[in-house]
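Technical annex B. To support the medicinal chemistry partners, we prepared a structural model of the target in complex with 6-O-phosphono-alpha-D-fructofuranose, based solely on the information shown next.
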Amino acid sequence: MERQFKSSVITLEQFIIQKEQNFPYATGQLSKIIRDIVLASRIINREVNKAGLVDILGLTGETNIQGEEQQKLDLYANDQMIDALFKGRMVCAVGSEEEDDFIIKNGSTGKYIVLMDPLDGSSNIDVNVSIGTIFSIYRRKHLEGELTREDLLQKGSEQVAAGYILYGSSTMLVYTTGHGVNGFTLDPSIGEFLLSHPNMEFPEYCNTYSVNEGNYRDFFEGTKQYLRHIKRDSPKPYKLRYIGSMVADFHRNLLKGGIFMYPGTIQRPKGKLRLTFEANPMAFIAEQAGGMASSGRDRILDIDPQELHERVPIFVGNKEEVLKLESYIKAYGKYGREAITV
Ligand code: P6P
């Protein structure tokens, strides 16, 4: 009788090959990009893990387009990702939170564009709190000729893949290609990402909210009323969990149930987080995991980006909770600046 070689361990490589078999027309190019991102993330992970030991901490003295102090690891992660993507030859352009404009690979025959936050949560780097890499993958609209704005700035609904790497107590890759969400945990002893969280979905109930309550007084009325509701009127108390690293907060809420919020404020009606580098990839993952992502008024994935670094308010997590939030914003009338109550 033929021996059965059954192992519960599935590597990322084996998973990709299995999934490619489901789509025979798939050329494997998208899988190659995922592999390139994973290669860069393992190099980044090595530096993140020893960041406290070598002089890679501290500020570069430079600032990115957002006017934020850049941590050296931000730039290191940015360079590793761009290098791996262009060497992989599948990608013709990269947009990064750390770059003022798109980086175009001249002469590239690559059909894909990657938008990324190479190291999200950088303010947590030197306090040893989990940080992450967030990525979105788009396919060129026009496969010939010069890259156009239509190729480079697409709605989030056009993403062909999105994911994040979480550099936490363990290093995890979570991604979707539009067929559900799967999580892989790095086994450092063999240097492989192993399938650890197949078919990830938000739990049915949400009992956690993640928001920087320090901005409360500047929130618009609808956001304030929603927060008052969940803290005062809800039948069961909610937990507040917020560590200021979107990838870590989102990942915990995906596993345990929750809503992550970065609302607009009177000073910053569009909030702080970027549509292209943070909101869109997390929205794609959230929807694929049975959740929802809204600006408070619009589905994040339907928003037509006007510029690479534009910001957007984001409420993402359990669908029921996001719908409840939207109802408060609607009930308390106007949106953004018009909602300012005197
Ligand atoms: P605040 C990190 O800088 C980040 O971009 C997200 O990862 C995080 O959710 C948010 O900003 C934290 O911002 O204003 O609460 O410190």
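Notes passed to the chemistry partners:
Residues 29-49 form the longest helix (21 residues).
The two ends are 80 Å apart (CA to CA).
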